[in-house]
Amino acid sequence: MELIKLYVIGMVILVVAILANFLATQLGLKTWYAFLEVMNSGQSPNLKDGLWLFVFYPLSLGGSALLGQFIWNSLF
């Protein structure tokens, strides 16, 4: 049962990550792939992209883990 719980939480995290990346692209923010390309080119990321990638994106993924836990507890 624990493996199914991890699967459900992982699926919620995956869906939220996909939506967050889509939203970031629509708002003109860099995703991790674009960030790595910028770093490889020797450029510096701007503050807006840094805040997104290092503060708000991890918070959204952490929140999605809590959401997955809540969904699991609601179902079982």
Question: Could you characterize what this model shows?
Answer:
The protein is mainly alpha-helical. The protein is 83% helix and 0% strand. The protein has 3 helices and no strands. The chain has helices spanning 2-26, 32-40, 47-75. Helix 1 (2-26) runs antiparallel to helix 3. The longest helix has 29 residues, at 47-75. The chain is elongated and about 50 Å long. It starts with a helix and ends with a helix. The mean pLDDT is 95.
Give the helix/strand layout:
Layout: H1 2-26, H2 32-40, H3 47-75
- Identify the overall geometry: elongated
Largest sheet: none
Q: Which consecutive residue ranges, at least 5 long each, have pLDDT under 50?
A: none
| Through-space gap between termini | 10 Å
Short description, anyone?
The protein has helices spanning 2-26, 32-40, 47-75. By secondary structure, it is mostly helical.
List the defining traits of the structure above.
single chain; 76 residues; mainly alpha; 3 helices; elongated
